[in-house]
Each structure stands twice: as structure tokens, then as C-alpha cells.
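Changelog excerpt

This revision adds worked examples to the README so contributors can see how folded entries look when concatenated. The first example is reproduced verbatim below.
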Amino acid sequence: MAIEERNESVRTGGISVETQHIFPIIKKWLYSEKEIFLRELVSNACDAITKLKRLISLGHVRDIEDKFRIDVLLDKDARTITVSDNGIGMTAEELEKYICQIALSGAVEFIRQYEGKEGENASGIIGHFGLGFYSAFMVADTVEIITKSYTDAPAVRWECNSEGEYRFYPSDRTERGTTVILHIVEDESEFLSEYKIRDILDKYCAFMPVEIYFTDVSKKEDTKDQKDGEKKDDEPEKPINDTNPLWLKNPSDCTEEEYKEFYRKVFRDFREPLFYIHINADYPLNFRGIIYFPQLRNEYENLEGQIKLYYNQVFVADNIKEVIPEYMLMLRGVVDCPELPLNVSRSYLQNDAYVKKISAHIVKKVADKLNSLFTTERERYEKLWNDIKLFVEYACIRDKKFLERVKDNLLLPLTDGTFKSMSEYLSDAKEKHPNTIYYATSKTEQAQYISMYNSEGIEVALLDKVLDTSYIQTLEDEKWDGHTIRFVRVDADIAKALKGDGEEYKSEALEKLFKKVSGKDDLKVTFEVLKSDVPAIINLSEQSRRFGDMMKLYSMSSGEQFDVFEEDITLVLNSKSQAIRKLGELAEAAGENFSEEQMTYAKRIYMLALMAQRRLTPDELREFLEDSYKQIEKSLA
């Protein structure tokens, strides 16, 4: 907001900051990681070359034949790190203007002059804040610049110490470009390691658009003393970076093997990704990237993925949540956004509607890919489902819009090993159990129930993962063809699903007998005519069990302990079973004076019903085995 002069007595001026005050702040607070100094200096060198290329393309400079490059030199003996380029260079006036004045960006001025006021076409120029150079003082006590402008103006040398005191004078440099020399302080000797410098370059500069060459000068000097034949120095130089990364290419020009090789190189994971999504957005958004679905060994494996954010091919950060929704952070990928509104240190994003649009676009692309696989590669989609199921379920739980996009292509794994989409299952179930999906959480523990349902032509879904409890609740909150659906576990609706025809049989004495052998006076006992001949079966309240599951899940995540939740079970006695009818007649005749034999038979039926529904507790199993051995001994006596 402009300040108006209201009368002649008002004085105006600019706020000044003394160097000795701002330098300590820059050194301590500008960047969260000291290693970023090398990214900033290499980025500046890249910008210097990019600017010169742009001037050539605009016709302001004749074409240059020499090859553009950036060199990073490490000299342990001299305790220096040098970053050199053969780019646009600087005149003495430009050096004084852009280097001696903090936060005056040469990049911004260049964009305004040659790309228009709004910088619609910034041509890949990275720097914008005019502060990156000063990151050098986080690790150096003295910094030198030797530079010569492309205009052939006299070269100049500049030296500055960590207090901000500088001097500059003519240089005898003859080649165009800029060299920055850092004299590393004693406390930062870790940056004089070849491994450390290579690691930083690999992390931040692996895909910069100008070839970067790294040399350990000390190591090179050592090789001169070796005998002939011990080492060949005539091997061609290789840049440490890939100037044309895969995400910049047209998807139609990339091969399957290139995508896999890029994945292995960037994420150092030798398991092949399940599939990938190549994003190439031009308008109104401007970003590119490749998203990979990694293989997971099991549901308990570390789910944290790695989305690498780049800014004009310069690495910025991992997993910036503003760009990728939290529920997608288990994926892996690279996203290059040249128009991201970064903060001054390029370490995090400033709030911006543009960022939200990028995030929404990525979510849409992921959903589109899943839909495409379902529609055009159904067989492959089914093979992948068990690997991507956890991600899809979590995404549906967290994002209703994502669920709406993929709902027609959500698969239900069935207990027979096949798959059906939600729509397919509900369509097939219209006649026998409309708007109801029967499921099991264990093929082994609930095998008898599954068999009983299958015998009636009812398919059972297998939802055996921890997340499934929340997932089915999310699906129940959604409308399917205008209807509300419900998920019912196979042990929760047995009397309704498998209700048969025939004469009902009830016995109050038999009900008392089963309450007595169970040790639960409040045990619910009902009589139903079932299609199966099984004597008895346990019916467990769906809502009661879900609540118990949620409490267990909360205990696991919070670390808090809760009392064991008492499940709401019902013992269903099959009126059709001859064993139940015979035992009922004996119980009626005995009144409440049940014989040991009647108690034994009832206990055996009750325990078998429990075993068909769940695993027995240690005490229940011990008691069951003891009773079984006694029966064997009695029969053989």
C-alpha cells in the first residue's frame, strides 16, 4: 500500500538493514538444512546458462559453439568447494548490484526485461529471491567470485568474509562465466567429503537441465603419482545428472522398461512398481510428473511413500502435503511444478489456490488410471487388486470425491478367489438378498458359515484386513443406484439368510440346559428352522462386533487400554435338527434335573457352535479337550 505525503513536514525514506545484523540471520535461519547451499549455488549457475541460452534464442547474442556445463570441484587440501559455469557472467556493475545488495534478484530482473512484466514465459529460470547465493556463508567464512560477462566487459574478482565485508577488483579471467569459491570453516569439515558432496548433488541436482560434472581435485592429484597402467585417465567424462528426465518426455515416447528403470534409479527399490501414471498438464495448470504404485509386502509394511517435488528440475522437498493429499503419500513419484509458490528458502509452499488445483488434478489422474485399468484391462486390474486395495480403501475413506470417481470400479474379493465389482455383486444379489453384501473376515474360522451360504447360492466377500471395518462403513454411507446398502458378516444374519421351511420346534427346558452348560445365565437362545442340518450355530450382532473392532483399533493406535468388550451373541438352535429335537425331549422329561449325559451332549453342541464361529479361548479349548478325552475313555471302558 502506498504511503501518501499529507504535508511538507512528513519525511520519507527506505528501511535499511546493516550487513552485520542480517548476515547472522541468513546463516542461521534462511535454510533448514545447511547442505542446501550447494543446491542454491548450482541453481544459480544453471540460471546463468539458461539466461544466456534465452538471449541466443531471442537473437540478442550470436550462437555460441562451446558446450554449456557446470563444474563442481572439491579440494580437501585447500578446504574449498568451487562451483563454476560458462553462462552469462557479470560485469562489475552487475556484480555490485546483484551480489552486494541482499535480496535483489538478477533472475527476476531478467524475466521482467526479456520475458514480459508478468514473466509468463520464464524459460526455466530458477532463482527469484536473490538470497540463494548467501547460503554459502552457512558453511564458509570466505567466499570468492570470479566472473566475466558475455558482453566481453572486463572480468572482476569479488571476495567477502562472513561479516559481510567485501572487496572487488579486476581479474585476469578470459573465459565467459562465473566461478564461486567457498573456503569451508573448520566446524563444517563434513562438506569436504567426496561422498557427502556426491550425495547432495544426487539428491538436489540429479535432473537439472545443464550438465554437471563433479571432480575431487585431491583424488585426481593422487592418481598422477600412480604408475602407468594402474589407471586410465582418458575415459570420457560423464555428467552426474540427467538433463532430460523421463517426466519431461512425451508418454508415447517412453517405454515400459524406461519407466521401471527410472523408478529403480530414483527410489532405489528393486521391486517393480505395480503401474505408473505419467502426468503432463499444460493448461490451465503447468506441471509434469510420474506417480508410481509401489508393491507392498503386507499390510503392516511401512506405508510411507515418497513424492519428490521439483521446481524446474531442481529438487525441493519430499512429501509436501499441500501438493499431494495425505492419503496418497504412500505412493511414490516425482512432480515438477515450475510455477509453485515456494517460500524464500524453497523448503515449503506458501498457501495458494494454484496448489490446491494441482492436488485435485493429481487425485483425478489417479482415479482415471484406476477406472481405465478396470475398463480396458480387467484381468490385470483383478491381479493388482490385492496390492492396491489398501491404498484405494484408505483413499475412499479420506476423500468422498475420490470415492465417487472410483465407486463403479471397486472390487470385492470373494471367498472362492474371484472378484466382482460392487455393482456386479449388488445386481446378482437382487433376488435373494437385495442391497445386502455378506462377507467373512476369515476363510478358516468362518469356513462352516461360508459353506452354508455358498450351498444356497449366496456369494461371500472376503474382507479380512484391519482397515475393512472403516471401509465398509464408508461404503454404507454412500448411495448405490439410489439405495442404501449394508454389509453383514456371515455369522451375523444366519437365521434370516438361511431360514428354511418346516415345523418350528421350541423347548424352554432345552433353553435352560444350554444356558447352564455355557455358564451364562443371560445367554440368548433362539429356535429357528434352518436349511442346514447343523444342530446349532452362533449368531453375532453385526453392530456389536463392529463396535468391538473399532475399540480394539482405537486401543492399538492410541495405546490406551479398555476393558474387553462383551460381544452380543445369540445361540441359534436348529428346529430342523434331529439331535436338537431328541435332546429337547430328554431335557423336558428331566425338568431341571439334567443328567450328566444330557449336560455333556449340550456342552459338546455349544462348544462346536463356538468353534465354527471363532477361535476358542485358551480356557475354552482346555475344557473342550478334557471333555473329549473323557468321552473317549468312557466309550472304550
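The second example, added in the same revision:
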Amino acid sequence: MRHPEPGSDSERQRFAELQQRLEPLYRRVFADRLAPRTVVVVPSLSLDADTLAKVRGVALYEERLLCLLMLLRMPYTRVVYATSVPVHPTIVDYYLHLLAGVPHSHARQRLTLVTCGDASPTPLTAKILGSRSVMRRLQTSLGDPALAHLVCFNVTPLEQTLSVRLGIPLYGCDPALNDLGSKTGGRRLFKEAGVQVPDGFEALRDGRDVAAALAALKQRRPSLDAAVVKLNDGFSGEGNARFRFRPGDAATGAEKRIARRLPTRLEFEAADQTWEGYADKLGQMGGIVEAFVTGDEVRSPSVQCRVDPRRVVEVVSTHEQVLGGRSGQVFVGCEFPADRRYRTRLQRAGERVADVLRDRGALGRFGVDFVVVREKGRWQPYAIEINLRKGGTTHPFLMLDFLIDGVYDPETALYRTRAGEPRYYMATDNLHESRYAGLSPDDLVAIAVEQELHFHGSSQEGVVFHLIGALEPHGKLGMVCIGADRKRARRLYARTVEILDRAGSGRARRGRARQRQPARRRTSPAA
């Protein structure tokens, strides 16, 4: 079969036709646990390659959507999961054993794992499209294409091409709308939705524009101490940089002085970033400048929303983001839910943003990041970013929802079990310690069983690990710690870190002891 050329009008038309199948499929299948369906999961991080290269163990981030294996709890659902490299069998078993009431063998028969056998930094979707054998494997695993759909981490023209070549719709945003998720597009959309943003400028094209925007911002806000420069398509805070003003930057001629200081005074969140590299990315993708928000107390919550194929908007969660990096702008983890003093207000703002996105044609899950500042006892939210993709808060909430099988209460912004009890969690993608390196997936499972860190179905509390494949080579791990209240979730998180630290230290000590032992000379039986 001859396919349309990638990026051509005929491909876009075919993609639009496939997307029309989503609404009837959603109405007929999604709400019926006994309805047969096939979910094809392609967790490709089709993002800026240079920024991805700065993330330790990024190839193994494809494991984050393994939470979707929990869909196998529905007895006639089939999951096809693609990865760049094979997933360790112990990791697959770990997730399948979380399926309450479903025999492991029954779930395993309905799971197809497809691997490219390619650990290169090329996006997974590009690897799949470049391999006839992998494409054939995916196509033969679909079952009835009329009952199949594609799920991805984010949607670019690559994923559009994959959807067309598989002949199945994609539950995600049309890549033609991706500009709405850029920093410039986000600021413009926030203003349209009537949601407050930090003072600033968008649609900047180069360093000259940045210097002019910084000077203008300082002139109209002389007391401002710092501003943030952001690359339009940066993510997880890695494309951000802080600029500290000097007293004379509000005076005439400040633009030239600021331009001279940019190469040496811009504080990049990415540790190994240079002005030359940053300026090059700025020229490629553009950027924004906005005031660095300060106050008596500053927090960074987010709202996660969904537009379903019926065009219905739903707020599905709020989170407190845990940030690190040089100036606290890099995503490290999150807590659910956001603080009760402002989470319902955030929900309303998120819903206004979601309404505009829905009207523009957006589909699927997306997040809206905020900065909330406390001034004179009141909390004021500022919207700062739209993530038109599954983000760091997506898979923790999906895992909570799959495991608890409860309901999100939009009135209180709490998640409740079927018995009406609330559940909280603390989660991270970035638990990283060099002493963890060498701990295998089997070691982790043994530790979890021995220390009772696993999730308990009876109490509906416990720990669920992810990014397990990054543990042995990189000493990196993710986890979701679920508790009946925020304090219990935090204690569980702290206890898990303590246990892993001890286990990692013990492994390191044993490794050093083996290195110190003299080598034993082997002898043959005849000696």
C-alpha cells in the first residue's frame, strides 16, 4: 500500500479522517470494560534532541507510560507497547502483578511488547517508521483496526505519520496546534482566557530581542530584581535562564549594556549550557522574557486537564510541583493534590484555559503550570506554561486512578476511594544516587517485598516504582508514594529513600570489598 508523503496535504487530510473515528469509538468502547479494544502505546519523547541529551537516562523514560499496562485489568483489552530497547522481564511482571483480580497469565497473553533494539537518541517514533519489521509487527498486533487507537507521550508530525501508516486514530492533539504549547503561544492563550500571567514579552527571535525586552521590562518595573528568559519549546525548565538586573538597567541606553552582559550573566538552568548554544536555540525556536515572580512565599502548582473526543472538558488533578535546578525551575517531582487554600481557584483558571484549547481543536491530556505567590496573606496565581503532552504529573495520577479505582471530586479537588476516603501521593521521576547504580530490577523487587514497600490493595496505600530500567545503569528511579493523607505520603517517601540509600550503600561497600580482594587463581581438575 502506498502511503502519503510525510507532512503532505494528503497525509494531513488522511490523519483528519482517522481522527473522526475517535468520537464514536470513545462513546462505544471507552466506558465499557468488557468491550474489546487495542491500545497501541508509543512513548516516544519526540522533543528537542539537545535538551533531551541533558536528561540522565532519557532513553529509559519510555518506561514511564508502563502505567498503561494497567488497562489490562479490562478482560478484552489488548495493549501493544513499543520501546527502543527491551523492557526487563521483571519490570513487566512487576506491573502485571499490580492488576488486582486478573491472573498474570491472562494479562500477559493480551500484552504485546515490540522493541526496535536501538538505544540511539533518535525519537522512538522515527525508529519505528524507519524499520519495516517493527512496522509489520505493530500492524499484525492491532487486531481489528476499527477498535484500535494510538497513545503517545507527545504528538509531532512523526506521530501523525505513524497514525496514518497504521491506519488508526491518535488520542492526542493535532501537531498543527503545537504552537499553542510553546511559551509564546501559551502566554497569548492565557490572555485570551482571561488568566493572569507574569509581566513580560513574547515572540522574541534572538538575543537582541531578549535584551530589548529585558530593558523594557525593567523600565516599567524599576523595582524588579530578576527576569526569566525561556526558549519557546523548552521543557522541564531546562530551557530557562535567569537574568539579574542592576540598578542602572532602568536608565536610558540600558538595552546595549544588557546585551553586552547576556553572554556572561545569564544563569542557565541546564548545567552545561553555553550562551552560544542557547543563542542558537533561541534563533531556531524563539522565546519569551517574563518577570521572575517573588513574594512572601512562592509555589509552583499545576492543573491537569483533558478534552475527550466528545469535546468535553474535564479538570482531572492539581499538583504541587517539586522543583530543583539553579534557580528552582527544573521539574523534579510532585505532590497531589495542590494546597487546599488555592487549588479550587487553580481549577477554575485551568478550566478557562482548557475551554479555549478545546475551541481551538485540542484533544487529550495537557497540563497548565502556575506560579502562586503569597502577598499580604493572599495567594495570587500566574499562569506560566501549557504542556500539550503527557508530563511528569500524568503517570503518577494515572497510576493512582488505576490502583484505587476511585473518583476525583472537583468540588474539593481530592481523589477518593470507593469508600469515600481521600488519597494523597508524593512522586518523583528523579530519585538519583550514584550508590543505587548496580541495583537490578530483581534487587529492587526483593527490597520492596522485604521492607513491605509495595502497594497494598487492602489499605490502598504503598509505593509503586517506575523508571526501574534506569536504576542499574544510571542509579536513577521514579516512584509514587500513596497515603491516606499528605503526611503519610511524605513519610512513606522518606522511608523509601532511607531504605534505598541503605541498600545502595551496602551494595557499594560489597563492591569495594570485592575489588580489594586478591584475585584467586583458578586451577583445572587435573592440577
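Reviewer comment on example two: Residues 486-516 form the longest helix (31 residues). The radius of gyration is 24 Å.
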